Amino acid sequence: MGTDFQRNAFKHALHQGKLQIGLWSSLCSNIAAEIVSDSGFDWILLDTEHSPNEIPDLVSQLQAIQAGTATPIIRPAWNDAVLAKRCLDIGAQTLLFPYVQNAEEAKRAVAATRYPPQGIRGVSVAARASRYGRVPGYLTKANAEICVLVQVETRIALDNLEAIAKVEGIDGVFIGPSDLAASLGHLGNPQHAEAQAAMKDAVTRLKALGKPAGILTGNEEEARRYIDWGYLFVAVGADVGLLAKNADALAKKFKG
Fold first, then answer.
1. Catalytic residue at 50?
2. pLDDT tens digits, residue range 103-123?
3. Which of 67, 72, 116, 125 has its CB surrounded by the most CB atoms within 10 Å?
4. Per the residue annotation, which of 12, 15, 50, 192 is the catalytic one?
5. Are residues 27 and 243 in contact, defined by beta-carbon separation less than 8 angstroms?
6. pLDDT tens-digit readout, 226-252
7. Reduced to 3 states, what is the DSSP secondary structure of residue 184?
């Protein structure tokens, strides 16, 4: 890995307005992560909110990903400073915080990722993030390469969208289609016209602020529509879905 300070390619690409295509990873497997990290995606999201993924698992997944094309992103299980600190110490530079409802919660997410005086991140002098203490000046440089993404996934959060997006240190806002649809009264149906209209409205408002918007879908047609609308970091599938769909299709060919 060397002792050079690690540049966050994903963060810089977002700031330059470059479309970033990603993949959700929920298999909690270093081998699966290694396989998909070299597929050509710009980013891989390692999930802990809806996956039985813990810190030791994430360490091995980050180690597996580091030779691939994709920047790893970790989604902590909650907007919690302790969970964030642990993800940062193992070397993640980009975090996606779930269920951020207002500017105050967005500020809390940013603070959790920054060393004092800008935030409240606890200091470790020999964590994996600093190559176990070998990166010169890690503590003073770390804040600049951290990328904070927050999830807006309820009606209340949508009402506060501008306030959330304007918080200093928020690099992008991710619209959670499933939870947003549920909050709007359409559980299990993000394709509902009202949910789709809300997603389009959200990206339009974020573009007006110059703030990158993100979203997830496993449907190609939907993904292309979201990109047309202006979403800048788009997950176009998930490792679980790829495995299940392809395994089902193969079995059906012979057992159908």
1. yes
2. 999 999 999 999 999 999 999
3. 72
4. 50
5. yes
6. 999 999 999 999 999 999 999 999 999
7. coil
